[in-house]
Amino acid sequence: MSKSKGPEYPSFSLETDDRTDDERAQSRQVKKPARLVSALGMGIRCLEENKEDRDSKRFDIKRLFEAVSTGDVMKLEGLHQYLHQSMKKLSNTEYQSYGKNVLLKALLNLRNGRNNTIEYLLDISEKMGDIKELVNAAYTDSYYKGQTALHIAIERRSTYFVELLIKKGANVHAKACGKFFQLHDGPSFYFGELPLSLAACTNQPEVVDFLLENDYQRVDVRESDSLGNMVLHALVMLADNTPENTDFITSMYDHILTTAARLHPKWRLEDMENNQGLTTIKLAAKTGKIGLFKHMMHREFQERETRHLSRKFTEWVYGPVHSSLYDLASLDSYEKNSVLEIIVYSSDIPNRHEMLQIEPLNRLLEEKWDRFAARMFFLNFLVYLVYISVFTAVAYNRKKGTVRSLHYHNKLHYSSLAGPRAIKFGSMLKSFNLMRKHPSLDTLLIDGYSEILFFLQAIFFLASSVLYCCGREEYLGFFVLCLALSWVNLLYFSRGYRHMGIYSVMIQKMILSDILRFLFVYVTFLFGFSAAVVTLLMEPELPANNTEDLCSKPTFRNISHTIMELFKFTIGMGDLEFTEGYQYKEVFYMLLISYIVLTYILLLNMLIALMSRTVEKMSLESTSIWKLQRAITILDLERSLPRCLRTRLRSGVDKDLGTRTGEKDRRWCFRWPIYLHTVDVESMMRE
Fold first, then answer.
1. Which of 602, 617, 639 is the endpoint of a domain?
2. Which residues form the Ion transport domain (predicted)?
3. Nearest partner of 118 among 194, 57, 175, 67, judged by Cα
């Protein structure tokens, strides 16, 4: 019989014991606990070894992020097995930080446009069945909210990964709506939130074409962001009027417009409005993007399939002369919220003077002026001239003495009230006209110089009328102020004539800039020195029998009298005899000399120099400012017309331009013949 195998014991060896007797005794006392501690230690070491082994196979978010940042696939070896055994997926929230997952991290760490871990991760995710969740994961923090892997791939200019992500099911309409992607004063980049808008705004035509024409998931060009802006609106917002930027924006704009027209002929992208009710051309006008705006109005396509996208159509060419038709849709003030109204009435557009010089807007305004505005403006001038003539006559022949009583009634009384009543009606009409426009404060401060003066004129007259009816003599002060303003406002009608209008513009600019600053500094000096003089000069005691002179004669102890006397020194009419008999005359003379040097010599000469510089500067700008003022007048007059007359006096012609399918395409166009100083033979032959 074979003997059963007994238990195996750990091997041991004999060693020399060189300990002392005491050490041996102590060892025998703790012998059993020592064995227990040794066994526990061995168990702990085994657990630690097992834990280290498990940790080497465990993949947490930190390890994944570090691996994909280096782009080394070997660091991800065993990931699929670990996920399968632990029943986890790469799209789980434990592998995300504020929505940022391992795929987003990998795309942020491309080297020469590549990162080999991306394909590896997509392959694992596809096997685990969460590929769409992985590729469509988006940031959740407020700064980058909504940004997906497709946005990052486009921003990194990687066409390869853009195509790969779309093949794997990436959402082509995902919106990056975080604070960084919105318009604000801090660091930001607004591109319209959508992947197509991002590709267009970063000048990637290949990516744009793939998004528009791929076989997996095509974008809808009409899709808009949270502001209602589609891709063409986003391009308008990105324009900055520099030559390089304008070339890129116009090229990309036309490319998307023509491609969309080829794929979807019935779509009218340029008629789409954002949340502000602005189409692309209106948005370009509102934001002052003059380069893109000019391109839009002069855009002409020769190809038959895209000719309907043109806004300019060459009608005929003969030698150096040609005639063009400009589409007036959205341009003419005949329509509500037109481009012309936006430019004329928006005081926050910095270069609107230049934009009004672009054809056909300049010629359109000239035609409106010649067609009806000039006659209406001249008629208004005659009516206003009669108005202030009656006003002046009433003021000149007003009854002297006390305020006239309202208790007598006769024919003479009613006839005498006819003039004031007509004046009151005119003042109320001016007030109503200003309130009807509802101008903003900025508009009033920039363009409302004349409107403010007319409004003050009406307020002064109405205040005078109320005080007069109440039997108060104070009405006369408001009355004469209204009379003076009435004649000053006659300069408003100078804008109908070129040279007088430019002269009036210069006067307005000098009043609102140079003279206003001068008056602020001058009043500061005048009040300061007047207060010093009043404080300094003490009157000597007068005899008791001389009190009558003290009561009747004004002195420098009166602040208003002192201000008036110092003002006389400014204009060279001061009188030094007022200081006779006063103390501290030496100090007074020092103050007076300083005051004269600062005001009469320094401030007045600075004012003259500044006004001369303003005249030189305004000689270049005054013409465009005058044209803007006249444009405001033209549109105001047009608004006052009834609808039937506006239709009858509408500028332009109705033309059938046709389409590529032979259908009718009727548009209201503005015809403008022009002489070419330089004849382009090639373009003539092409025509």
1. 639
2. 452-619
3. 67
Domain that holds residue 572: 512-539+552-639
Question: Residue 578 is part of a domain; what is its CATH number?
Answer: 1.10.287
pLDDT of residue 218: 92
CB atoms within 10 A of CB 482: 23
Using alpha carbons, list the distances in angstroms from residue 328 to 357, 370, 653: 16, 18, 10
Residue 202 in 3-state DSSP? coil
Long-range contacts for 42-47 (Cβ within 8 Å, ≥24 apart)?
none
How far is 427 from 455, CA to CA, in rounded Å? 8
Most confident of 6-15, 251-260, 466-475: 251-260
Same domain, 634 and 561: yes
Q: Give me the phi and psi of 225, to 5 degrees please.
A: -95, -165
| DSSP letters for 50-76 | HHHHHHHH---HHHHHHHHHHT-GGGG
- Helices of type H across 438-558: 441-447, 449-469, 475-488, 498-510, 516-536, 547-552
- Please, are residues 309 and 299 in contact by the beta-carbon 8 Å criterion? yes
SS3 405: coil
**Which DSSP string corresponds to 102-169?**
HHHHHHTT-BTTB-HHHHHHHHHHHHHT-HHHHHT----STTTTT--HHHHHHHTT-HHHHHHHHHTT
Separation CA 294–CA 275 (nearest Å) = 24
Phi-psi category of residue 303: left, alpha or beta, with phi > 0 → left and psi -120 to 50 → alpha: beta
Judge if 476 and 368 occupy the same domain. Answer: yes
Confidence of residue 666 (pLDDT cuts 50, 70, 90): confident
User: Which single residue is written with the structure tokens 């006096």?
Assistant: 649
Coil, strand or helix: which one is 305? helix
Beta-bridge partners for 326: 312, 670
Is the pLDDT assigned to residue 4 strictly greater than 60? no
**Predicted model pTM:** 0.77
The answer on pLDDT for 96 being more than 90 is no
**How confident is the model over 54-65, as a mean pLDDT?**
76
Do 623 and 533 lie in a common domain? yes
603 close to 514: Cβ distance less than 8 angstroms: no
Q: Is residue 45 part of a domain?
A: no
Apex 10 CA angle, 7 and 15, nearest 5: 140
pLDDT band at 295 (very low <50, low <70, confident <90, very high): very high
What pLDDT score was predicted for residue 28? 56
Q: How many domains does the chain have?
A: 2
Query: Which is higher by pLDDT, 509 or 249?
Result: 249
pLDDT confidence of 420, banded at 50, 70, 90? low
Confidence check: pLDDT of 335 > 80? yes
Report whether 475 contacts 461 (CB < 8 A): no
Q: Are 648 and 638 in contact (CB under 8 A)?
A: no
- Specify the DSSP class assigned to residue 233: H
Q: What rounded mean pLDDT belongs to the chain?
A: 79
Strand partners, 314: 324
Q: How confident is the model at residue 56, as a pLDDT? A: 57
Locate 158 and state its tokens.
């990687």
Supply the pLDDT for residue 579: 58
